[in-house]
């Protein structure tokens, strides 16, 4: 097994088992302990895994947990409004867009409410705010209400969603990283988000600076599937290089 593939497999193994010994990794991957130590060091430097006595474990310091909508809404509020305003500039009359549930994506409402749009959304808050605006054609698929995110999480009819041609999707995330991609803390929402990314011509990811190098319970798409990352601060050089290499446009409002 080539090195890069082995390291990815080790990463997946540790994430699945939460904590493993070096001896177990040596046995599972059939390599020397020195090789495992070198591979582990690379994963430790990426931030998702930490060394513990006799082995390694998932670094929970970087794992984002599912918090209530209200608790998340007050954090970095000014930055979220700034990000939402920058993202809203890409919305044009006649667009068919998806607005994801999230405390940043909901802030887009004030900047697009006067446009003539078809909006697909799983956000209960966005549906309620849109009631007074007849120029907004709202499409929602319902499902199970996830109270911590004020959103409809489960995808009841994937085939129906796949019939919609979405110009632009504005996505939220619990955390993003180069190793885990774009992640989400709510398992109910992951299939819906994955399908939206697949069906959209352009995908915009709205994340503030605190979301970088964090990860949630499930990955719903790779970072390379995103077309625009809209954030409040320029990320570090590693992310800048990644976006350049993968034709992702970084949008950082002044």
Question: Describe it for me?
Answer:
This is DeoR/GlpR family DNA-binding transcription regulator. One of its GO terms (molecular function) is DNA binding. It comes from Niallia oryzisoli. Keywords: DNA-binding, Transcription, Transcription regulation. Residues 3-58 form the HTH deoR-type domain. The protein has a seven-stranded parallel β-sheet, sandwiched between helices. The longest helix is centred in the N-terminal third of the chain and has 15 residues, at 3-17. α1 crosses α3. The N and C termini lie far apart (46 Å). The protein is α/β, with parallel strands linked by helices. The chain is built from ten helices and 15 strands. Mean pLDDT is 85; it is low at 65-74. Helices cover 36% and strands 23% of the residues.
Concise structural overview:
It holds the Pfam family DeoRC. Residues 3-58 form the HTH deoR-type domain. By secondary structure, the protein is of the alpha/beta class.
Features:
transcription regulation; elongated; three-stranded antiparallel β-sheet; 23% strand; seven-stranded parallel β-sheet; DeoR-like_C; alpha/beta; transcription; 254 residues; DeoR/GlpR family DNA-binding transcription regulator; Carb_Metab_HTH_regulators
Spell out the blueprint of helices and strands:
Layout (H helix, E strand, L loop, with lengths): L2 H15 L1 E3 H8 L3 H14 L2 E4 L2 E4 L10 H5 L3 H12 L7 E4 L9 H4 L4 E5 L2 H7 L5 E4 L5 E2 L4 E2 L5 H4 L4 E6 L3 E3 L3 E4 L2 H13 E7 L11 E4 L6 E3 L6 H9 L3 E3 L3
Parallel strand pairs: 4-5, 4-9, 5-6, 9-12, 12-14, 14-15
Antiparallel strand pairs: 1-3, 2-3, 7-8, 10-11, 11-13
Helix pairs in contact: 1-3
């Amino acid at each position: 097994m080539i090195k890069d593939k082995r390291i990815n497999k080790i990463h997946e193994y540790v994430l699945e088992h939460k904590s493993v010994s070096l001896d177990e990794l040596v046995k599972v991957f059939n390599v020397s302990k020195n090789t495992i130590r070198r591979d582990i060091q690379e994963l430790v430097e990426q931030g998702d895994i930490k060394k513990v006595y006799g082995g390694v474990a998932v670094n929970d310091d970087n794992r984002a947990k599912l918090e209530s909508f209200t608790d998340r809404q007050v954090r970095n509020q000014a930055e979220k409004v700034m990000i939402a305003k920058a993202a809203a500039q890409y919305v044009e009359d006649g667009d068919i867009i998806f607005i994801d549930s999230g405390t940043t994506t909901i802030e887009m409402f004030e900047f697009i409410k006067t446009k003539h749009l078809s909006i697909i959304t799983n956000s209960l808050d966005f549906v309620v705010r849109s009631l007074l605006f007849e120029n907004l054609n709202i499409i929602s698929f319902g499902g199970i209400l996830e109270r911590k995110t004020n959103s409809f999480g489960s995808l009841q009819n994937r085939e129906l969603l796949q019939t919609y041609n979405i110009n632009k999707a504005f996505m939220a995330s619990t955390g993003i990283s180069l190793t885990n991609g774009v992640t989400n803390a709510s398992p109910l929402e992951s299939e819906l988000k994955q399908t939206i990314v697949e069906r959209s011509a352009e995908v915009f990811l709205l994340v503030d600076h605190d979301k970088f190098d964090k990860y949630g319970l499930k990955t719903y798409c790779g970072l390379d599937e995103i077309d625009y990352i809209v954030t409040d601060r320029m990320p570090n050089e590693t992310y800048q290089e990644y976006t350049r290499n993968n034709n992702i446009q970084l949008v950082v409002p002044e």
